[in-house]
Amino acid sequence: MLWILHLTWCGLQNLVGAVLCLCLRHCPHTRYRAAIVTQWRRRDGLSLGAFLFVPEGTPVQNPALLRHEYGHTIQSFFLGPWYLLLIGLPSMIWAKLPCFRRLRRERGISYYAVYPENWATRLGDRFSE
Q: What share of residues in the chain are helix, strand, coil (percent, to 5)?
């Protein structure tokens, strides 16, 4: 049943995730709940539907990050085609724009202080039990 949702309601982000997963086929892949996890050489995580991309060693060294990224998968189920606009874009802007990086560093604001991130963490913790 989950794969039907992944292929229909969450189709766009899963298509992008599948293409990226294929491009990274040389990287280690595992499964986590209803997701395929790719360990890549970047230091950040990314969730595109059923495809999670996490730094190498994350499943063992940082299970909280894995749960967080899985929380984004749950958000994808809730929001379907709106996920990329309502979660992906704000999350990427918050993570990557230098003005927000500086704001977090100078004011000691947690990366997880904004709604896409704290919601993903709560969902990941809840659905990973």
A: 65, 15, 20
So what's the pLDDT on residue 28?
97
Q: What is the model's pTM?
A: 0.94
DSSP string over 10-38:
THHHHHHHHHHHHHTTTS-EEEETTEEEE
CA 13/CA 7 separation, integer angstroms: 9
Kind of pairing between the strands at 29-32 and 35-40: antiparallel
- pLDDT on residue 129: 77
CB 72 within 8 A of CB 125: no
Question: Which of 16, 127, 7, 21 is closest to 74 using CA atoms?
Answer: 127
